[in-house]
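Colleagues,

For the teaching module next term, I've prepared a clean inverse folding example: a structure given as tokens, and then the sequence designed for it. I'd like students to try predicting residues themselves before seeing the answer, so please don't circulate the second half yet.
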């Protein structure tokens, strides 16, 4: 999904797949240095997302993932500090934005999660942000989509796209 959005020129933080471990230093440099994020390709609700702070940690995690009994497809992504402070979830249904709300990281965790009770209230989107999210919905051609992004000095950065956004906890705040 991220590759499709990058090909359309949308604001996705730099990311990389790990073909081999010979070029890890170059990959980390392209991603902006440590910390970086390692994500399992088939994860949800923040599960399978790890913040990596050193080359030693990265090599150990890659070794673990590649040699586990059920190897997981993972990728690396730049760490966006602003997402820990306020990560905004936008829900789009039939190409229409139906809600946007803020979440933050809690309990010494870098992952912002509504399930952990970090609701920051509803958010008003700028026209530019709205246009980006409606464009993504049309590109991916999904009936419902949840988009997580952070507002940064470089503009909005899309952290994650969810084809099955969990909305259950949102009812507690409406």
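(Answer key — instructors only)
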């Amino acid at each position: 999904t991220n590759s499709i959005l990058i090909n359309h020129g949308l604001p996705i933080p730099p990311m990389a797949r790990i073909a081999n471990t010979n070029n890890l230093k170059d990959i980390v440099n392209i991603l902006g240095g440590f910390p970086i994020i390692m994500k399992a390709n088939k994860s949800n609700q923040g599960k399978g997302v790890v913040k990596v702070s050193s080359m030693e940690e990265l090599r150990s995690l890659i070794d673990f993932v590649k040699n586990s009994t059920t190897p997981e497809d993972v990728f690396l992504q730049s760490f966006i500090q602003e997402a820990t402070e306020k990560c905004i979830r936008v829900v789009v249904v039939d190409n229409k934005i139906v809600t946007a709300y803020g979440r933050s990281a809690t309990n010494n965790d870098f992952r912002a999660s509504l399930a952990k009770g970090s609701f920051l209230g509803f958010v008003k989107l700028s026209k530019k942000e709205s246009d980006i999210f409606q464009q993504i919905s049309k590109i991916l051609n999904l009936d419902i989509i949840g988009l997580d992004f952070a507002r940064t000095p470089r503009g909005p950065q899309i952290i994650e796209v969810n084809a099955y956004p969990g909305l259950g906890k949102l009812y507690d705040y409406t």
